[in-house]
Amino acid sequence: MAKTILSITLVILFWGLTLATRTKLLPLRSRNAVAAVAPGITDGICSLMVKTQGYTCEEHLVTTPDGYILNLQRISSRGPLGKKSPVLLQHGLFMDGVTWLLLPPRQSLVFLLADHGFDVWLANTRGTKYSLRHTWLPSNSPDYWNWSWDELVAYDLPATF
C-alpha cells in the first residue's frame, strides 16, 4: 500500500512540474515563440543538468521526415570510456529528457549507466521544451501541433535511432 501511495504521489508531482513548465504557452503570438514557450532553451539539457555534474554531454539534433527537429543528448562517463552497448532512455507522457536527470548522480539511471561504461542517449519527442523546432512550421502554428501518437511512432522513433 505504501508503494502505491508513493507511486501516485510521484506521478502527481511529475505531472504538476510538467504543467508548471507549460504555463507559458499562452503568449504564442510572441515574435520569438520558442523563447516564449521555453525560456533558456539555448542552454540545453547538457549545460543545465549534465555538465554541472562533471559528465561529458553532447547535444544532437535530428530531423524527422515530416520536419520536426528533435534534440537528443549523449552522456559519457566521467572516467574512461566503456565499450558497452548504447542505451536510449525515452521520457514518458507530459515529460522531457530532464526527467531522467532529476536525481543525484549516485541515484540517477543516466549517470549510473554512464559510470558503468554504457553509451547513454536521452530522447526528447516533438513538442517538448527541448524539441520545439521545425524546418518550416513555427511552434505557434496550429499545424505544428497537428500530430498524434502515430507520428511519434512513425517518425520520431526511427529518426532517434
UniProtKB/TrEMBL annotation:
Q: What is this protein called?
A: Partial AB-hydrolase lipase domain-containing protein
Its keywords, alphabetically, are:
Signal
**Species the sequence originates in:** Lotus japonicus (Lotus corniculatus var. japonicus)
Q: What is the lineage of its organism?
A: Eukaryota, Viridiplantae, Streptophyta, Embryophyta, Tracheophyta
Q: Where is the signal peptide?
A: 1-20
Q: Cite the Partial AB-hydrolase lipase domain residue spans from the record.
A: 49-102
Q: Does the keyword Isomerase apply?
A: no
Instruction: Please report a single Pfam family linked to this protein.
Output: Abhydro_lipase
* One GO process term, biological-process aspect: lipid metabolic process
